[in-house]
Design goal:
The structure holds two protein chains of two kinds. Chain A has 21 helices and 16 strands. The N terminus and C terminus of chain A are likely disordered. Chain A is globular, with a radius of gyration of 24 Å. By secondary structure, chain B is mainly alpha-helical. Chain B is about 60% helix and about 0% strand. Chain B has four helices and no strands. Classes of the chains: A alpha/beta, B mainly alpha. The interface between A and B is medium-sized, with 19 and 20 residues.
Chain lengths: ~525, ~80
C-alpha cells in the first residue's frame, strides 16, 4: 500500500509541526496519502482516502450497490409510464428531463443530441462495437447498420425490453445486435482485443464512483483491439459544475430570493449532486495508468441547441494504442492576445498553410453562467435573483460559439477544426486547432499536443455522489485520530479529501476551490 | 401515527437528508419543484411498494402520483381500497 507523505517543500510549508501531523495522519488506516498546509492561521490536511477502507470499513461497497439499484429502478420506472409505451421507434427519450425546467427536453434538442453523437461515433469507423448502458437504443438503432457486430448491455430489464420491442420491426438491424442485461463492470466472456470500440455514452454519470469507472475503462481497454477506441460520451464536467449549479438555481429562483439564499441553494446542489461528475483531467491520467491507452481527446459537444448537454458536457475519446504514435507540437496563442477574429481564420489558414492553435477561447454557450457565478462570489448578499439576472443580461459578451468554429471546417473548406476542453479550466474557455488539409494528408492520425490542465486540476478528478455522510464520517475519524495522537494545537482545523496530493505549491488554492464538495 | 403522518415523516426525512429544512405543506410539489431529484423519487416508490404493496410495474408510473404528500397519500388510499 502506498502511504507516502507528500514532499513538504512542494506545499510551501516545511515546519516540524506539519511533518508531525502528516506522520500521524498516515498512520490512520483510512488515509492512503496525506499532506498538511498552513491556511488561514490553522492547519488543513489534504487526504487521499484509502479505497479499501472506504469500501469495507465505512460501507461504500454497500452504498454503491444501493446507488446502482436506485438508478436501475429509476430507469425501470421511466419505462413503465404510458409515454414510454407509445414512444416512436428509435426515439424513446423518457427520462431526458432538463435540470432547468424539470420538464422533458425539447424533441428537437434530443434529435440533434442523437444525430451528433451518432456522427461522432461513426467517425471512428468501428465495425464491432460493445456499448455499455445502451438505454432505449437510440444510438444502436442508428449505428448497428454500419457494423458487423454490435453488443449492447444495460442494467435495466425494462429498458432492454423496450429495445427488443423496437428491434422486432427492424430485422436487418436486429441480426447484428446482441442485447445483454448486465452491469457496466461485468465483462465476463469477452475476449481481449475483440472489439473496434467500446461506447459508454451518457452512462458514466450513473457509475457510483471514480474507482468503478476506472475498473470499467481498464476492462474496456483490454477488450478493444490496438487502433480502436473507447468513446465516453456526454460526460458531465467537474470544473464547470459550480457554474452549472449556479445557472440552474438562478434560473429557478423567484425574483425576490436574496443572494445569500441563492448561494445556499447552489452549495446544496453541489453537495447533493447524485450523478458522477468528472474532470476531463481524469481521462488524461489514464495514459499513465493503462499502457493500452495511448492518447486521449476531450471534445466539446457539437450542436446549436442550447441545453445542459451542449453547455456542460464533453466527450472523451480514448485511443487504444498500436505503440508509439506521432506527436505534433503546435504553436498556441491565447485568443485575447492573438487578435484574430472568427471571419479572418479561413484566410489566415490559406495564407499560412500550417496548423495553428488558439487557446483560452471564451465560450459563448456559458459565458453568462460563468459571469453569474463570478458576481455571486462578490455581490452584496442583499441583492436578489432578479438584480443578478438583470446584471448578467446587461453585461457585454465576447464569447465565441464552438459550433461557429466547427462550421469553419466544413467538408469543402480545405481544413479541419478541432476543439478541446482537455485543459479543464473552470471558466469554460476552450482551445481550437486549425489543421490544413495538407497536414492531414501527410499525417492523418497525428496526435496534436493540446494545452494541458493546471496541476491543481488533478487534485479533484470527480465528485463523490451519495457519499456525503460516509466522507464526513471519514474526516471525523481522522480528526479524532489526530486528537488522540497530537497536541491540541497540532490538530488540523479541516480535512479535505482529494484524489491526489498536489505536486506544486497551489495546495492552498485547492483548499479554497473545493470547499463546496466537502461535507459540512 | 396516522398513515398521512407516516408519509409526511418519510418525506421530511428525505428532504432533511438533502439538507432541505424548509417548511413543507401537504400539497407542495416535491419532484416537479426540484426539492427532490428523480433518484429521490425512487425512495418514495420503494416506500410505497414496501408499506402499501403498490406495484408500479402493474399500475404504471406517473411522476405526478408521487409529487406531494397529498398525492402520495391519495395513491396509497386508492390502492388500499382496491386491494
Amino acid at each position: 500500500m502506498d502511504r507516502s507523505v507528500a514532499p513538504l517543500d512542494c506545499l510551501g510549508s516545511s515546519t516540524e509541526q506539519c511533518v508531525a501531523v502528516q506522520q500521524i495522519l498516515c498512520r490512520h488506516p483510512g488515509v492512503r496519502q496525506a499532506a498538511v498546509v498552513q491556511h488561514g492561521g490553522g492547519l488543513v490536511a489534504l487526504v487521499v482516502p484509502d479505497e479499501a477502507y472506504l469500501d469495507d470499513t465505512l460501507g461504500r461497497s454497500n452504498a454503491n450497490a444501493v446507488a446502482l439499484a436506485k438508478w436501475q429502478k429509476t430507469y425501470d420506472l421511466n419505462q413503465s409510464t404510458k409515454a414510454a409505451a407509445s414512444a416512436p421507434p428509435g426515439f424513446n427519450t423518457l427520462g431526458w428531463d432538463s435540470s432547468y425546467t424539470r420538464r422533458p427536453l425539447p424533441p428537437e434538442d434530443m434529435r440533434e443530441w442523437v444525430d451528433v453523437t451518432v456522427a461522432d461515433i461513426l467517425r471512428l469507423q468501428s465495425r464491432t462495437i460493445y456499448e455499455i448502458g445502451c438505454g432505449t437504443g437510440m444510438l444502436l438503432i442508428r449505428i448497428a447498420p454500419h457494423c458487423d457486430r454490435y453488443i449492447a448491455v444495460d442494467f435495466s430489464h425494462a429498458v432492454l425490453c423496450r429495445v427488443r420491442e423496437q428491434l422486432r420491426s427492424m430485422p436487418s438491424v436486429a441480426e447484428r445486435v446482441e442485447l445483454m442485461e448486465r452491469t457496466a463492470d461485468n465483462f465476463d466472456g469477452l475476449a481481449p482485443a475483440s472489439f473496434d470500440a467500446v461506447v459508454i455514452n451518457s452512462a458514466a454519470q450513473y457509475f457510483p464512483n471514480l474507482t468503478y469507472l476506472t475498473r470499467v475503462l481498464e476492462n474496456a481497454a483490454r477488450c478493444v483491439r490496438p487502433g480502436g477506441h473507447i468513446f465516453v460520451g456526454d460526460v458531465r464536467s467537474l470544473p464547470l459544475l459550480p457554474a452549472f449549479a449556479a445557472s440552474v438555481e438562478l434560473f429557478q429562483a423567484a425574483d425576490d430570493v436574496d443572494l445569500a439564499e441563492l448561494r445556499n441553494r447552489i452549495s446544496r446542489r453541489l453537495r447533493h449532486t447524485p450523478e458522477l461528475v468528472l474532470s476531463p483531467a481524469y481521462f488524461l491520467t489514464l495514459t499513465h495508468r493503462f499502457p493500452g491507452i495511448s492518447r486521449v481527446e476531450i471534445q466539446l459537444r457539437s450542436g446549436r441547441s442550447d441545453n445542459e448537454m451542449t453547455r456542460y458536457r464533453c466527450n472523451a475519446v480514448l485511443h487504444v494504442g498500436r505503440g508509439e504514435e506521432p506527436s505534433c507540437e503546435v504553436p498556441f496563442r491565447r485568443w485575447s492576445e492573438d487578435g484574430c477574429t472568427l471571419p479572418e481564420i479561413p484566410s489566415r489558414l490559406q495564407r499560412q498553410n500550417q496548423t495553428f492553435g488558439i487557446s483560452h477561447i471564451p465560450n459563448a454557450r456559458i459565458e453568462k453562467d460563468i459571469l453569474a457565478l463570478e458576481i455571486l462570489g462578490t455581490a452584496d448578499p442583499a441583492w436578489t435573483a432578479a438584480s443578478l439576472r438583470r446584471e448578467v443580461k446587461q453585461a457585454a459578451t465576447c464569447g465565441i460559439h464552438p459550433q461557429d468554429l466547427l462550421d469553419l471546417g466544413a467538408p469543402n473548406s480545405g481544413f479541419q477544426v478541432r476543439l478541446s476542453w482537455a485543459a479543464s479550466r473552470r471558466d469554460g474557455t476552450f482551445d481550437a486547432l486549425f489543421v490544413p488539409g495538407s497536414t492531414l494528408e501527410r499525417c492523418p492520425s497525428a496526435a496534436f499536443r493540446w494545452p494541458e490542465p493546471e496541476p491543481s486540476s488533478f487534485v479533484h478528478l470527480a465528485n463523490a455522489p451519495g457519499q456525503t455522510r460516509l466522507r464526513a464520517e471519514l474526516t471525523e475519524r481522522i480528526i479524532a485520530h489526530c486528537r488522540e495522537n497530537l497536541p491540541q494545537s497540532f490538530v488540523p482545523d479541516r480535512v479535505v479529501l482529494v484524489d491526489s496530493i498536489p505536486q506544486t505549491a497551489d495546495a492552498l488554492a485547492v483548499c479554497e476551490q473545493f470547499q463546496g464538495f466537502e461535507a459540512k | 401515527m396516522t398513515e398521512k403522518a407516516d408519509i409526511r415523516k418519510f418525506i421530511q426525512d428525505l428532504l432533511t437528508s438533502n439538507d432541505d429544512r424548509r417548511p413543507l405543506a401537504d400539497d407542495d410539489s416535491l419532484l416537479l419543484s426540484g426539492r427532490l431529484q428523480s433518484i429521490d423519487g425512487v425512495e418514495i416508490v420503494l416506500f410505497l411498494e414496501e408499506h402499501y404493496g403498490i406495484d408500479f410495474a402493474e399500475i404504471g408510473f406517473d411522476r405526478d402520483q408521487i409529487d406531494s404528500i397529498d398525492s402520495i397519500y391519495a395513491l396509497s388510499q386508492t390502492t388500499a381500497t382496491r386491494t
